[in-house]
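User: Continuing from earlier, I have the next pair ready.

Assistant: Great, send them over.

User: Here they are, in order.

Assistant: Folding the first of the pair now:
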Amino acid sequence: MTSAALYRQTEMDRTTWPEFRDQVQAFVAAEAVSRPRSYPGYPNWPLERCRPRLWPALEPTLWSRRSAMKLTADLPPRRQLSRLLQFSHGVSGGFHRGPTPSAGGLQALELFLVNFTDGWLPPGLYHYGRSEHCLAQIVAGAERDAWGAMAPSLNLLAGGALLWVVVGDSARVAEKYGERGLRFLILEAGHLMQNLCLMSQRLGYSTVPLGGFFERDIAHAFLLPPDDVVLNAGACGRAV
């Protein structure tokens, strides 16, 4: 079956619309509340709360954004990484809303990262807690060669201190949107990666989205639950 055929399995038409509409309405009537994921009991690194800056304007950031093929391996300072995460995917409003558009306000994306560099943040695999604005260490240690084997496109770049991993909680959207919810997660993953790209550029770094990675290997490495889907990945460092 072609990729287009698989995608069309969740297309909507006049015959499927009533069932989809009724499922959404039933979910809304139940007043379900979606909460960001957290990892209590895991090693935790609090991040700094940052205020929005008024300058520079958005246009220069958009105009100058590029995917650099050579990146430094220096870990961003705590203040810089705090700002990058907060304004890319932090909670900034009621019902855990933030900068990333979310279907139905379900906030079904989780942001993970791999840190390869020793510094104020030890090497390892981390989850970004949106509500707590912190990094929880899921696994200690991270070998670049091992991750290059799981994400072959990472080997096309030189350097890079961090690897972003965008994960969708399919169970969270399926309850409201059924199988079509996966389409929304894919769209949201692109929104979040764009936020990471723009905030990286804004702070003097470069995020390079990657297309070649082994989803199940990455899910296993992060100890993800079965309903989670790995949707997007990107390397981050200062452009050389």
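And the other member of the pair:
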Amino acid sequence: MDVTGLLDPLPLWAIFVLSVGIALLSVEVGYRVARNRQQHGSEEQASLVGGMVGPTLGLLAFMLAFTFGLAGSRFEDRRQVMLSEANAVGTAYLRAKLLPEPMRTDAQNLLREYVDVRLEAVQPGKLDQALVKSEELHNKLWSVAMATAEKERSAITSIFIQSLNEVIDLHAERVMAGLRSRVPAIIWIVLYVLAILAMGMMGYHTGLANSKRSLAVIALILGFSSVLFLIADLDRPGQGTLQVSQHAMIDLRNSMK
């Protein structure tokens, strides 16, 4: 399933390096433009430009906070839906013990296999295969449920079918939360445009003030790039350093033994 974000072709370390490079280049270009204008007789006042630098940096900070909150909320959504799926599969497994044979054994074996497939899905390069296998297991489990309903129409059969239906629904929710709920490309574009403008204005103001380039600008650029790195990391399910823990699903698999 090819669902990618705007920056997905780049590794995370490259995003950090690229952000630092763009910010440094913007500051330098702004500085040189200001010095060039002064050499050609421009009388632009640095105080007026300084009054615009602050609001621009504030707008950039707001955009960073908004994007970080968006990526963080979607990371939490992935964690919650994984926990809900583990609980739903566990409930279906327990209720399958109440089914008559041979449906009981078939359902339990399929649910154990289903948990293994869900754990494999988070491993690099196995996502597409795991999604296809999950849908195949849905069909097999539903066939078991239909066979049970034909053999014995009871309250136990009904609650098992209800649990199985919840498992299938949560599969769709997890696919949506994990693969399709990404930071939109337009937000990344606006974020980088604002960063270029803000850093360029900082350099322009420094050039107009006839002051040397400050090392404090380096600290600001590193901080800005670090936040972008974290946002990109949060927005990449199955990659990076910030990943949803699979302990709930692992504990469920151990309990099925």
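Worth noting for the second one:
Residues 10-44 form one domain. The two ends are 31 Å apart (CA to CA).
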